[in-house]
Design a protein that fits this description.
The protein has helices spanning 3-20, 25-32, 36-44, 51-61, 65-69, 83-94, 97-114, and strands at 118-119, 122-123. It contains 7 helices and 2 strands, in the order H-H-H-H-H-H-H-E-E. It is mainly α. The chain is 65% helix and 3% strand. The chain has a two-stranded antiparallel ribbon with strand order 1-2.
Length: 124
């Protein structure tokens, strides 16, 4: 992928992550330490950030560079995790099969309470 293609993919993915996670350009600008205009230029595809800024963006969104810079066939379903969700997943992965089964059972029981409010794994 050449620089132009990477810039296009970056812009598309950045917009998706910001939108799906209800993050404003202003919030991202403050975290990364750049102006609102700079973030607006990234969002519109006029410019792309240096790699140190890409790393800060990824840290803020709790994603990897690859998730931000590479084409993803599931772009419409991109979801970044909160820090709490990331910790939960790391804990889950450290469990043995019995522990995972217990967590899955509990999650399934709790999910039944909200199922009428959920469609295609999205709260409605």
């Amino acid at each position: 992928m050449d620089r132009t293609e990477t810039a296009i993919v970056f812009t598309k993915n950045l917009n998706i992550y910001l939108s799906n996670n209800n993050i404003s350009q202003n919030e991202l600008a403050k975290y990364v330490g750049v102006s609102n205009t700079t973030v607006n230029n990234w969002v519109k595809g006029y410019k792309t950030p240096r790699m140190d800024k890409v790393d800060k963006i990824c840290d803020f969104l709790h994603i990897s560079r690859g998730q931000l810079l590479e084409e993803n066939i599931h772009n419409s379903n991109i979801l970044s995790l909160s820090k709490e969700e990331t910790v939960i997943i790391k804990k889950y992965r450290s469990l043995d099969e019995r522990g995972k089964a217990a967590v899955n059972d509990t999650l399934n029981r709790e999910y039944e309470f909200v199922r009428p409010k959920v469609q295609d794994d999205k709260v409605i």
